[in-house]
Write a structure and sequence with these properties.
Elements: H1 2-22, E1 26-34, H2 46-63, H3 66-80, E2 88-97, E3 103-110, E4 113-124, E5 127-132, E6 136-138, E7 142-145, E8 152-158, E9 167-174, E10 178-187
Parallel strand pairs: 1-10
Antiparallel strand pairs: 1-2, 2-7, 2-8, 3-6, 3-9, 4-5, 4-8, 9-10
Helix pairs in contact: 2-3
The chain binds copper (II) ion (CU).
């Protein structure tokens, strides 16, 4: 009886560890992309400004200073330096790492934008600014939330309108876990 129970536990343990090894170490929850339109004129940059303003309002709220937020919008837009007035948007999701080893999101790609960058938002001289980062670290058995006002995947130079309900395909490259394909839903 005792032996059988031990054997059962051993088999169960093996099964569990096998599952752990086979399951994806990194997974993405609730991926979404902010709706954006390319606009009907070139060089206006209006679409881009609108997208950024929406994100900044959230930041402004969080900091209780609408003025700082508004300044940040201007700076962020200028710092983007796209020049061509291409529309921008951003993708957000929670990325979880079930493995015992730290991982990192090192690259993102999408066919809806000319350029895709990993960005963060931080306070510099009382102004909220976006800046590119080389990677977004995901701790072992932990997760990171990409959200407005924080880490995000920046979609620069949209090739098409992103309407609410559309799906945007993202390809995420992890330092350890390899490549992950994600279908993000466009939201307002
Ligand atoms: Cu950005």
């Amino acid at each position: 009886m005792q032996k059988r129970r031990l054997l059962g536990l051993l088999v169960l343990g093996l099964l569990l560890s096998a599952c752990g090894a086979q399951g994806p170490a990194v997974s993405v929850r609730d991926p979404w992309v902010r709706a954006a339109t390319m606009g009907d004129t070139m060089g206006g940059g209006h679409g881009g400004a609108t997208s950024i303003t929406t994100g900044t309002m959230t930041m402004g709220d969080a900091h209780g200073g609408a003025h700082g937020g508004a300044t940040g919008t201007t700076t962020a837009t200028m710092e983007m330096g796209h020049g061509g007035g291409g529309a921008v948007s951003a993708a957000y999701f929670t990325i979880a790492n079930s493995s015992g080893t730290a991982d990192a999101l090192v690259r993102a790609a999408s066919d809806v934008a000319e350029t895709v960058e990993l960005h963060t938002v931080e306070m510099q001289n009382d102004v909220m600014q976006m800046r590119p980062v080389n990677q977004i670290d995901i701790p072992a058995r932990g997760e990171v939330e990409l959200k407005p006002g924080g880490f995000h995947v920046m979609l620069i130079g949209l090739k098409r309108d992103l309407k609410v309900g559309d799906t945007v395909n993202l390809t995420l490259t992890l330092q350890n876990a390899g490549t992950l394909n994600v279908a993000a839903t466009v939201r307002q």
